[in-house]
């Protein structure tokens, strides 16, 4: 998921990258060996059931653990990204399988990789299924990690490293499911396309937006599977599977206070720092009005059935004319995610002012990271904030890096039904909920190109493991990784294999 915010770039370990690439094809085989040796095949959460036309995925999942480890070792901290190295590594794996990959340059040094399994000589792009994952990762604060963030350390049944979940885990799992489909040598009813993208975390010059503009014909599809959903594990059991069908829209806004600059020994009432601070306090206490998108409404309806009685009762009352307002307060106070699913949110994230301790600055600035519900506009929200702040010294400036609102993916599509069927079967009838993610993904751009895109991070993970995404000691349980590979392969078998 994208941070949509500058992150401190980590060091690029060129020696390591060169060693990885110089190892070439040999490394692909060797790297997977120690993993298999160190980690006894653990019991996967969920109960594998019916045989699938793709067959048993446990061997390829172990192989893919090695790919994941290698991908973690290729430091793609964005900025600067340097996805080229990861792209070449992936292309090497595909080539070995007899699948011809294509490296698509987005900007110099930053590329995507695409590969295709054909269903027919002339396939219908509107039926094609795209598996997408990004190669770049957010930065790390190395001092807070207990292991090398780019060392792909395996211990206690986990693989540690930046990107282990977001999104190199999904990248390696997509690759495994795609290759498993090729190895199974089955007849496809639609083309299946593998795509590894660059610059997802910053959404800049090498992002999917530019990739689509330059190379759309290489991966045009009617359906896509991407990150953005979750399989929530609690007490060893899958609680639910959330399939992302929509996402909030990130917009950054600068709050700018102006005042008279001067000698700090003679304070004035129009001090920009004071006016900015006062405005931020008011904005911090503001809650935007609640409204429910179709996806959020369905999410709460289905979640009410599995949450405990007390909160479930309030979730069922969100729309009630008498206690709806109170229910909205209870539910939004109970969980920041639920709060963010029912309203536009504003998080002040950066402050800057001043050049010397004894100089009153003429200007002070803050950045608000705003997440709009799809359909809301930032101008309407800013009109409310202007009234609230009520200070002629303050103005708002929308930053140019705003995301675009996309229509939600359909909850009636054959693909959504296929994902639901497979997930229910694999996770002992755990409920499958549609999800509107509060974070941004590449799927918004795909949806704007008429792709029915769904987010399914396929690994069963606990809340505790989810919190490590973009945080310290990011890690993936290897049993969950294996289960994710199996789930993706079964989704492919269900939706793309001809019967
Ligand atoms: Zn991500």
Give an account of the 3D structure.
By secondary structure, the protein is α/β, with parallel strands linked by helices. 38% of the residues lie in helices and 21% in strands. The protein contains 15 helices and 19 strands. The chain has helices spanning 14-38, 58-73, 83-96, 168-184, 208-219, 272-284, 294-304, 309-316, 324-334, 336-342, 378-389, 414-426, 443-447, 463-467, 478-496, and strands at 102-107, 110-117, 129-134, 154-155, 158-160, 192-197, 223-226, 230-234, 237-247, 249-258, 262-263, 345-353, 359-360, 363-372, 394-398, 432-437, 452-455, 460-461, 475-477. Strands 1-2-6-3-7-17 form a 6-stranded mixed sheet, sandwiched between helices. Strands 16-9-8-18 form a 4-stranded mixed sheet, sandwiched between helices. Strands 12-14-10-15 form a 4-stranded antiparallel sheet, covered by helices on one side. Helix 2 packs across helix 15. The longest helix has 25 residues, at 14-38. The radius of gyration is 24 Å and the shape is globular. The chain starts with 13 loop residues before the first helix and ends with a helix. Mean pLDDT is 91; it is low at 3-14, 16-20 and 22-44. Bound molecules: zinc ion.
């Amino acid at each position: 998921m994208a941070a949509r915010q500058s992150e401190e770039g980590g060091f690029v370990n060129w020696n390591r990258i060169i060693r990885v690439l110089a190892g070439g094809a040999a490394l692909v085989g060797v790297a997977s060996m120690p993993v298999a040796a160190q980690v006894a095949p653990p019991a996967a959460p969920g109960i594998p059931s019916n045989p699938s036309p793709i067959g048993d995925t446990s061997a390829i999942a172990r192989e893919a653990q090695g790919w994941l480890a290698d991908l973690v070792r290729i430091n793609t901290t964005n900025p600067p990204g340097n996805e080229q190295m990861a792209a070449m590594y992936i292309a090497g794996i595909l080539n070995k399988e007899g699948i011809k990959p294509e490296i698509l340059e987005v900007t110099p040094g930053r590329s995507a990789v695409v590969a295709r399994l054909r269903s027919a000589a002339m396939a219908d792009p509107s039926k094609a299924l795209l598996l997408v994952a990004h190669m770049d990762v957010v930065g790390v604060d190395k001092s807070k990690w207990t292991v090398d963030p780019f060392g792909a350390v395996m211990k206690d049944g986990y693989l540690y490293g930046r990107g282990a979940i977001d999104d190199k885990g999904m990248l390696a799992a997509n690759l495994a499911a795609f290759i498993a489909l090729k190895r199974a040598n089955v007849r496809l009813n639609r083309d299946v396309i593998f795509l590894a993208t660059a610059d997802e975390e910053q959404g800049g010059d090498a992002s999917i937006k530019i990739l689509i503009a330059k190379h759309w014909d290489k991966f045009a599809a009617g359906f896509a599977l991407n990150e953005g959903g979750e399989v929530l594990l609690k007490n060893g059991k899958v609680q639910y599977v959330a399939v992302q069908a929509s996402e909030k829209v990130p917009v950054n806004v600068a709050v700018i206070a102006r005042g008279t600059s001067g000698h700090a020994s003679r304070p004035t009432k129009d001090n920009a720092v004071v006016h900015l601070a006062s405005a931020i306090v008011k904005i911090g206490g503001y809650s935007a009005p609640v409204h429910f998108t179709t996806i959020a409404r369905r999410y709460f309806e289905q979640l009410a059935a599995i949450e405990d009685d007390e909160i479930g009762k309030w979730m069922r009352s969100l729309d009630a004319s008498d206690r709806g307002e109170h229910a909205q307060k209870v539910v939004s106070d109970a969980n920041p995610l639920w709060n963010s699913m029912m309203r536009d949110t504003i998080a002040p994230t950066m402050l800057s002012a001043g050049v010397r301790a004894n100089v009153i600055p003429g200007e002070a600035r803050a950045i608000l990271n705003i997440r709009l519900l799809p359909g809301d506009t930032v101008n309407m929200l800013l009109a409310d904030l202007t009234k609230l702040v009520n200070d002629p010294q303050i103005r708002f400036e929308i930053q140019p890096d705003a995301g675009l609102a996309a229509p939600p993916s359909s909850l009636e599509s054959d693909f959504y039904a296929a994902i639901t069927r497979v997930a229910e079967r694999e996770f002992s009838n755990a409920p499958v909920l549609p999800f509107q993610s509060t974070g941004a993904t590449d799927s918004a751009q795909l949806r704007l190109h008429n792709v029915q895109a769904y987010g399914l991070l396929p690994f069963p993970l606990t809340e505790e493991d989810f919190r490590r995404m973009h945080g310290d000691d990011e890690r993936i349980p290897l049993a969950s990784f294996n289960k994710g590979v199996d789930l993706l392969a079964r989704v492919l078998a269900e939706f793309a294999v001809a019967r």
